[in-house]
Amino acid sequence: MIKLDDYDRKIIAALQTNGRLSNLDIAGQVNLSHSSCSRRISRLEKKGVIVGYRALTDRQKLGLSVRAYCGVIRDGAVGWEEVADHLAKIEGVVSVFAVSGDVDLMLEIVARDMQHYSQVVLQDVFNTKGVSATRSSFVLAEVKSIY
After folding, report:
1. Which of 4, 23, 35, 71 has the fewest CB atoms within 10 Å of its CB?
2. Domain 6-46 belongs to what topology?
3. Which CATH architecture has domain 66-138?
4. Could you give the strand order of the β-sheet that contains 93-98, starting from the edge strand earlier in sequence?
5. What are the domain boundaries of the chain?
6. Residue range 5-32: average pLDDT?
7. Model pTM?
8. Can you tell me the distance from the alpha carbon of 93 to that of 97, in angstroms, rounded to the nearest whole number?
C-alpha cells in the first residue's frame, strides 16, 4: 500500500470528479505548483494508484434503462474462478465480484429493458456451467457513484 498525503487525496478526488482536467487546473484546485502536481500525478500512475482514465456514460442515453445486481449461487462442483470467467464474457455484465454472504458471485448487469434483462439472466447466466441459482436486486436510483 502506498502512503498518500492530503495533496494526493485532493488530486485523486479532482480526477475522479473530472478526469479531463489539465494538470494546471488540478494544481490550482489543490494549491500546488504545476510541476509538483505533475510529478505527483505521474507517481500515482506509476505506483498503480491511478490505473486509467475513461469516459463515464449516461446509460439512459445509451438505451440501457435497467441496472441490476444479480447474486449468483454456484454449484460447489465448479470452481468460482471458472464460473466468474464465463459470466464476465456475457454481454451486459459490466462487473463481476466474488463476495461473501448468501451468494458466491455478484454481477452488475445493464439492459435495455426488463425483457432484455430476463434474457440475459435466464439464457446467458443460467446456461453458464456451475450456476445453480440467482437473486436479483434492481437499482431504483443512483445516489452516488465515483468508482
Report:
1. 35
2. Arc Repressor Mutant, subunit A (1.10.10)
3. 2-Layer Sandwich (3.30)
4. 93-98, 105-111, 66-74, 131-138
5. 6-46, 66-138
6. 95
7. 0.81
8. 11
Query: Cα 58–99–13 angle (5° rounding)?
Result: 45
* CA gap 11, 13 in Å, rounded: 5
Joined grid coordinates for residue 129: 456451467
Mean pLDDT, rounded, of the chain: 95
**What does the pLDDT average to over 64-73?**
97
State how far Cα 76 lies from the chain centre.
26
Amino acid at 134: T
Lowest mean pLDDT: which of 23-27, 54-58, 105-109? Answer: 54-58
Distance separating alpha carbons of residues 27 and 23, to the nearest angstrom: 6
Angle (nearest 5°) at CA 138 between 133 and 142: 145
Task: List the helix and strand counts (H, then E) for the chain.
Answer: 5, 4
- Which helix or strand (DSSP H or E) is residue 107 part of? strand 105-111
Which secondary structure element, helix H or strand E, spans residue 6, and what is its range?
A: helix 6-17
